[in-house]
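Homework help board

Subject: predicted structure for assignment chain

Our instructor gave us this sequence and asked us to write out the predicted structure in token form, then describe one feature. I got the tokens but I'm not sure how to describe them. Can anyone check?
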Amino acid sequence: MPQVLPLSLGARRPGRIRPELGPLNAALSELGNPHLAYPSILVVGTNGKGSTSAVLDAVLGAHRVRTGLTTSPHLVSVEERIRIAGQDIESANLERLIGRLTAFPDLTFFEAITCAAFLAFAEAGVELAVLEAGMGGSWDATRVADSVVAGLTNVGSDHPSWLGASAIERARDKGGALRAARWAVLGPGVDAGLVPALGAPHAVAASTLVRVDELDGDRVRVSWPGNEIEAALPLPGRHQLANLELALALARAAELAGIAPALEAGAVVGGLAEVRWPGRLGECRIAGRTILVDGAHNPEGAAALAAHLERRGERPNLLFSCLADKAVREMAGRLIPVVGEIVVVELDDERAMAIDRLVSAFPGARRAPDLESALGLLPDPVLATGSLRLVGRLVELAGMGGDR
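My token output:
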């Protein structure tokens, strides 16, 4: 069921995008510039931004840093997008903050949420904010914070109409965030051939600050000058190794920049054990069945998911849906060889891909009118992927919305 959004947020179309920062800067100026009341770390990239941000936030929290975290999109509740000291913002508090933005009716949905996060962080007295960019790196709303540290996970194929048709163009855009930061860190997933296009010669590889090595099973060895630990990989999937290395490298960069304490071995282990980031190779229980859910929503994400299934020797049955602007045929090409039966369903969303396009991309797939019917058509085991909106609907259906 569609979520009821607070006050003026409900009137702002979630899909509206504005590639400029002037209106948001003007609003923040009138509100007293809350985004400049604390230092911040900005995470940009195509995939892995949320996972990296969640790990970074947990590790900083374990070092007794009072953090603010803003991420997007949410799975079930819009309150998930703003966290203070590890806790989702309270609904009444978010409603109050959004209410302050009625004086700025032209702010987009994402601008309003980002503005509310800045206000919440300033009021809560956070010591350091972790900001996940929504789109790109040059004009995303998170860019107004003038972050001291910025990190890049990778440069993929999403949003070509906004960020550029070629990888070089998209790299230039994301590089805008790196160029503006005092410390810029490149994750292991950044293609070396794209580094010159970033235009950030001061950027350093994450591995020069922290090294993460895979051990047997789901354990890793983490090392940085004078320290070495072993810990469980905080999130499932081998692709999370790159996100973990970038997150810890950003924590070290924050230390070197003077905005965070030095990494302590015990706190790192404790922080990694506290990471929670639902919907990324996670499970939910629906009508007594365990459903594997993953938010892969582009070809790169689908490739990482397919590689995970192949390594595990698993061949689940697939429930798929996505938004209309996604590269569905490329995603299908990566997923079809590693899954069994396939059912597609059209999301209850104004940006949903039409069912006929989904069937065309997955030849032989059965169509379902809704999620409950789709699940009924598939035998166990079931994997649901293609969109975080699909994952969110399933998490909501499972009654797991509060499990952050």
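Reply (TA_rk): Your tokens look well-formed. For the description, you could write something like this. The chain has two domains: 7-273, 282-397. That's the kind of observation they're looking for.
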